[in-house]
Amino acid sequence: MSKLHGVDVSGWQPGIDTYNLSADFVIIKSTEGIQGTRYNPEYRRMADDAMRSGKRVGFYHYANGGDPIAEADCFYESIREYRGKVTYTLDWEGQGNRTFESGRDVQWCKQFMDHIDSKMGGVCILYTSKGVCNEYDWSPVKSHPMWGAEYAYDDYVYQGYQDNPWESNAKWGVWGRPCEIHQYGYVNPVPNNGGYSKLDADIMHVPASEWERWCGDKSPKAPRETPSRTKVSLADIAATIHYDMCVDAANGYSQAPVRWGGDSPLGTKTIEIAGRKYTYKRGSYDCSSSVITAWRLALQGTPYEGKLDDATYTGDMRRVFVSSGLFYAEPRGRWHAAKRGDIYLAEEKHTALCQDGGSDGVLGYDSLSEFNRNEMHGAVNGQPGDQDGYESVVRGYYDDGWDFIVYYNGNGDFYVDSEDAPSAEEEDMTLPFFVKFDDDSTEHLFYPPSGRLYAIANPDEKTALIEFFKLVYPGKTIDVNAKKFGIKDAPWGARLNDVLSRGASFRGFEQFTKHPSTRAIVRDEINKALDEDSLADLVARRVVDLIG
Questions:
Q1: pTM attached to this predicted model
Q2: How confident is the model at residue 453, as a pLDDT?
Q3: Looking at beta carbons, which pairs linking 108-115 to residues 24 or more positions away fall under 8 Å?
């Protein structure tokens, strides 16, 4: 019998990448006592990511020894949507547990497990140490599987996954030897997992079919994630909205007299994300009002709508965002890598939104979007709109003395039917070509991939770009957005002229797609086309020359 190896994680590992963990199963803390999910606000995100990678998933509840029925109900409410898909465990330990070693341990655990079984339809697992197993007669709950903790030494030891980990000769009480799941040491299941190099290592000593029985899933071979459903991330929606606000020249920086938009003659703007429409007021924003607006809009139509309405400025953002149940905040010194949609916050002066956590997920290698300052390098009384290209920007990460990173926990994400989700073929892709007029009215065409400007000397080059994207993205509508610059009424003229005069890199223009991290994706598509002996080969080679 091939044994399954796994790990258990909790709120002590915020941001951990459960998708890429090298493990057959992951058991995740969801609740403690009757305090709900406050101790691990990321439990849903951890579970969903693990499921998407094909891993078996379980949840556990840490007992505080209060009312067993109330604690079981608290646990059930947090995991009810996963009924039949996950195992569920009662964690019986001493710290914070008023009933532990009171003589009523077995009775309490039986009440809890019987109640949660009646709701989840499976078999509750009991987690405790070998010493506790032998301290009482656990016969009333012997039918429940045992997940036991016993290590080779008093201190955890890094062993890596072991097929036959050490254990003492003592039996696991009424369960005998071995227990169904053994927690035996440390393991490093993935090289870059957010800084958590050692996790508790677990091994299953029973067939994998037992896991399905504990879940209550009568069809163990059924897909673990319904293929007709597509997950939509609120963080991606908020980041997309904020990105759009920052690159739209109608939006500029101001703290007064207007800071919530609405002062632009262009009115409102509606963008569509994942089949839903989001409308914001164009005009003047400051750093905090823009981030708050983007996240408020992202919550529209969800059970969390209105939860951020009390947020007004950097000084109260952390309190309001965390109290919504969708975020947790970590101070400097406890940071882990930010992801798209997370918030950098210096409470007395500034905030910005993480747009891209970087391909390696390392803190400090991402990009951020922000409303920066007005055209007079001040905070008030500027003209509506971005007057110089730097009032609202998307830029590389920098440290502005952030006090906190406010992390989105994933709990507000939702699913839509795949047939309702917009497909790549249904979305238009805009290729932004720009025309600049010299003083002699000579036209020069520029194409700015990833924020850089390149001269297009021949109309055939423009045609080549269009044809390439048609080949790579069949069925898309390619809308060539040609705008004239260097004339008075050109909305982006100041930006373009500034870039041309300095010859510098500039991130303000629309890129290949709406997401700022997709340059690598486009390059992958180019490399695929280069491997094909077709017209795409010739077109792609020309595109490679153009984008460098």
A1: 0.47
A2: 41
A3: 108/63, 108/65, 108/68, 109/63, 109/68, 109/141, 110/140, 110/141, 111/68, 111/69, 111/72, 112/63, 112/68, 112/69, 112/71, 112/72, 113/72, 113/141, 113/144, 115/68, 115/69, 115/72, 115/73
